[in-house]
Amino acid sequence: MEYQEIYDVVNNNEGRFKVMFNTGAVYIKRLFISESNNICEFYPRSRTRGRIIYTGDIINVIPIKNKTTEVDKCRRNLRNVVKYLSASGFWTPMLNCAKVFLTLSDEELVDLCEWEQYNNFLKIQNEQNNNISWFGYDCFINLFSKSIKTMNFGKYDRSYQMSVINSNIANRVNCTHRWRNGYDNSYEIRFDEDCIRGWYSEEYRGCANGHYYFLLDNCHAIFGEDD
After folding, report:
1. pLDDT at 130 > cutoff 70
2. Which residue range is the domain that position 97 belongs to?
3. Global confidence as pTM
């Protein structure tokens, strides 16, 4: 199992995981992503401390899920949007949008899945809030089903590319990069006066169509639209 696949499974789920190794061994582990974006497991009887785990021998990681609803998934995505944007300085207007959505009840969030309700909600909110960039309808709907993902650089290029991105962000350098890894991948990060803006795309090879995302920080991205 590729490192990126393991990372995405752990990042988009919480709690315990069934971890299968190439030796045939199977363990139940409590995994998490550290603040430095490493895959870690909690120490026994600890909920706050853990250690980095070696993933080279892992062939599968399966979340052991408690029963969750689509609204739970939407709220988890919104909380992660707030967490990543608050730390990164990306998309300040989008951060404000996510904070507003988190104040709504479950019933209100479900009601907004109707296009007319969502459109009316935006009209009212736009009259009251100036510094908010509202999610497009498709982006909002997919909060209930899709997970936040990470840019897929591949196993061997990830560390180098992350160091390049981190250096550009630290020095406020506009940057773009294209590579091929299953898709024709690309990202762009731009520094504007009000905030940092970033985009990530996975286009079908040789086509100008695919999946498009908003970058939330140096590696995490939220679905924007399909084209």
Report:
1. no
2. 70-142
3. 0.71
